[in-house]
Structures are given as structure tokens and as C-alpha cells.
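User: I'm putting together a small comparison set for a docking exercise, and I want a reference complex before I start. The sequence is below, and the ligand is copper (II) ion. Could you produce the 3D structure with the ligand included, as C-alpha cells?
Assistant: Of course. I'll restate your input first, then give the C-alpha cells for the complex.
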Amino acid sequence: MLSNRSSGISKRTFLTGTSAAAAALLLPLGRTPAARPVQEMRLVVVPARVSLLGPGAPDTSVWSFSGQVPGPQILLRRGDRLRAVVENRMEEGTTVHWHGVRVPNAMDGVPYLTQMPIEPGTSFTYEFDVPDSGTYWYHPHQRSVEQVGRGLYGPLIVEDDEPIRLDRDVTWILDDWRLTAGGAIRSDFYDEHDLTTTGRLGNTVTLNGRVPEAFRVRAGERIRLRLINAANARIFALHFEEHSPWIIALDGQAVEPHEPGPEGIVLGPAMRTDIVIDMRGRPGDRHGIVDRFLPASAYKVLDIAYDDRPPLRNQPLDAPIRLAGNDIEEPDLHAAERHKVVFDGGAGSGLMRRMIHGTASERARIRNMFQQGLVWTINGVATKSHTPDPMLTLRSGQSFVLEMQNDTTFHHPIHLHGHFFRVIARNGKPTQFREWRDTVNTAPGERVDIAFVAGKPGDWMFHCHILEHQEAGMMSVVRVI
Ligand code: C2O
Ligand code: CU
Ligand code: CU
């Protein structure tokens, strides 16, 4: 059972979350056509000490953006231009990747592929237009296992042109840490067992950089929660006891509003889900939010705690929750070129069997791979390099379907940079919502078909977002020309 540590600490943390709405509600609803000035900000990559465990518990040494975990929430409007000066005050190189934001390739933050690492003591300026509304996040792409694992990540929120009616708009960025009893980050990054199995699972879950105990709400409120999973490897399946959240966006993209299935709100690493919840409990109520992804070790992430104020309203708000969404080019499924993408490797896989029973040359090839710390393959190839030969070369503007087959015994949240794709089928069965995503989970043995129009020219990473899997080979490049 994963101990969420709140049990061991006598304190009550009421989480207010970072409120995008607080700012958003002050803005005039009618969009002024006049361009806004460039939104400038500075991010300092720097070691820091923060309180993950809360008052009364020891602080934790982390790597941070500007001294905080998560890094500062970047709040933008669609069409804004962001200029972010990133200054590296650490002892190793880094980059910043704007996960999900459709930036020009040169701004994508992939070391050696789109830029050189930002060396210690130097800065790099990212500047790009933000074409899409939604919930995104930023993180390094250099030695991500350790850099993200030590706390380098932050939320990036792009407001809707026409916001839906809400009382609060709250961002929750979840993380999973492996801490010692004294609250320090265990330094066993790149552990061989983690690399070859589930990735680095921790023992402490935080929400906005703090072990949460309760999310304080008022009866009758309508709240939008923007859930972001910044963990290296943990997949969450959140269940809101006694509440009926509606999913309104996945990876920042509008989806037909729907209630989650029995599996709950499943959030693999890097994935985002925006939900709307009407707080239908009574003043003084407390209900749990439980992660049941691993049913045998389900645990409570935090409580929803109703305060004593009288209900804000007696009937749930009668206002639409459907988002307008973004302009994403629709793939033409008839004209689409189809490609198979097979994931292999890890414990219990065909790759492991061939390592033992394969031909002599197969065995030698696989042994050589393992010796380099490579255990996961995409279409037979494993690499640690950010500049491998592209697995596919696609013509910009053309439609493609990738038939992705997970031939492993593990889950893999697969991410394509620079694009949104529609998830069109799972195991040959059309999906109900044909959701747009930039990261999609593939379950053990599952086949997932995605469709998209190749976007901006450049080399775009395609990788598993369990950072240990990416590190151990599960990474490639899609070239758009
Ligand atoms: Cu969120 Cu290639 O990364
Ligand atoms: Cu990305
Ligand atoms: Cu994976």
C-alpha cells in the first residue's frame, strides 16, 4: 500500500490550488482583437528547498523552476506570444519542452535535436505564439528521469476564448516522489529494475508540490479542475467518491463532455484531463479522492472538504460545459497513409524470450542492446539518442494513421511532439469520442490507432512518457518535411 504520508503527519493542509479563474474572471469576456504585448517571463533553473511534506516535516532539496515546485503557472491567452528566458543555475545542462504546445520545431526544447543544452551559467530564450487553448505543462527534456524527477516542471494554461461558466478554475499538478524517511529524494535514479519494469514509482504523492490532505470547497460550487500528471511513471485512476465529475478536455483539447467509465479518470504520465464538478455535498461533508489504478494498493490522494458556508446555490448551475475547442486539421482517413508501430521489450516480452531462445545472431544483438542499457524498442529499434534516424518521414499537410501495437506486459503512455492526434480505435474498435490527444496510453497487449495531419516541418520526438522507458530506449523521431 502506498503511504501518502499525510497519515503520518498531524496537520491539516487546506489546498486552494492555483486559480487560473481568479485571474481569468477579471478579464473582459469579449476578446479585444488588438494583439497583446509579448508575454515575458523568466524561469530560473535552480536547486531549492521546498516543503513537500508540509509544516512540521522536514523540507526537501529539489531542482526547481524559480525556487518553486511546481514552477510558476504560466497563464496565457490563445494567440499570445510567450517569451521565456530560461536561466540555468544548475551544474548540468538542461532544456525546456512545452509539452503539448504546438511550437515551431526550433522552440521544442529537445537537446541536440532542436537546440543545444542550456549549459550551466547560461540562458536561452524561447519565443513562440501559443495557437491553442488548454491545459499544458513544461519540463526539461535533458536527463528527464532525474531532472523532472527532482521537481522540474510547471503548468502552462491557455485560457479559452469563450470561457464556460464556473465558480473556480483550479490547476492540480500531480507528482509521485520516492522519498527517504527524512523527506529527502532518494538518489536511485536510473535504477535497473525501474528501467526494465514499471518505471520509477515513488512512495509520496503531491498535488501542486505538497502532500495534500483536503481540498476545501463550498457546497453548490461548480469547479473546473485541470489535472496534470507530472510523475515519471505513476499512472493514476482517480475516483471522486460521491461526486460525478464530467470530463471536458483531454490533453487540453475539448472532448464531448462525458462521465468517466468505471476505470475512473485515468491519467498516465504527461497526460491532462480537465473535469467539471458540481459540489453537491452539504456543508461539513468530507469525501475521498482515491487512486485505484493498482487496485490492490488503492489509496486516498486527498479529501474534498466542504466548509460550513451555506450552499452557493441549491440547483447545479444550468450552463453548458462544452468547450469551443481548437482549430486542429482533420485527418482524411481514406487518404491517410498507414504505418505500423510496434512496442516491444521489458520483462516478459518477446524481446526477452528471443534473448534466450533466439538465433545466435539475435541473441548477440539483444545482449549488445542490454549492455547499453536499452531494453525497450519501437519497431525493433532502441536508442538513447535524441537524434536517431527518423522512424518515419511524413509530408506536412498529409494524413497519417499509426497503428500502435503494445507487445509488452507494461503500460506505455505514448507522446508525439508538436501534434495532436485523434485516438480513433482501440483493438480495432472505434473509440466513442475520437478524442484529440498528444499522449495516449497503450495497455499491455493493446493496439491503439491514432490519426493526424503532419504539422510543422521538423524532427519531432515520439516516445513513451514513462521517463525510465524513454531512457531505456523507447524513443524515436518523426520527421515532417
Ligand atoms: Cu513531455 Cu518529449 O515530452
Ligand atoms: Cu511534448
Ligand atoms: Cu513505456
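Residues 97, 99, 415, 417 surround copper (II) ion (ligand 2) (CB under 6 Å). Residues 1-33 have pLDDT under 50 and may be disordered.
User: Thanks, that's exactly what I needed.
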